[in-house]
Design goal:
This protein is α+β, with helices and mostly antiparallel strands. The chain has 3 helices and 2 strands, in the order βαβαα. It is about 25% helix and about 10% strand.
Length: about 120
């Protein structure tokens, strides 16, 4: 049984062959080395098997939330945003490692003829 009490576990590394390959897909695996639910060495093994099967994989050490150091939804959602913004894998990995905040929407441009400082809050995106 695992730390959650489940005895019928699913090992993703046993199912890599069923993951369809796509040249457009980037796979990010984010794990916390302090995670007591899913050990980082197993996430590394999964990443290695995916790479061996021809997938583009980036394994990143992130800072998880919760007492088991397993919660990484906050980083998964941010990673999705950074992918959609066109960031490359190395930049995304650096942002995850630094626990960076999510993207903010850019401010609308001032109307034609309006000084750029009008209505400015001084906040930069």
């Amino acid at each position: 049984c695992d730390v959650t009490g489940f005895c019928d576990t699913y090992n993703v590394t046993d199912h890599v062959a069923s993951v369809p390959r796509s040249p457009q897909r980037r796979i990010f695996i984010i794990g916390d080395p302090s995670d007591i639910n899913t050990r980082f060495k197993y996430q590394q093994a999964f990443a290695d098997k995916l790479v061996a099967a021809g997938h583009e994989v980036t394994l990143i050490e992130g800072e998880a939330q919760g007492p088991q150091r397993h919660g990484l939804t906050h980083m998964a959602n941010r990673t999705l945003g950074w992918c959609n913004a066109g960031y490359d894998n190395q930049r995304i990995a650096a942002l995850v490692r630094s626990n960076a905040l999510a993207l903010r929407a850019p401010k609308p441009k001032p109307a034609t003829g309006t000084p750029a400082s009008a209505g400015s809050t001084g906040d930069t995106p």
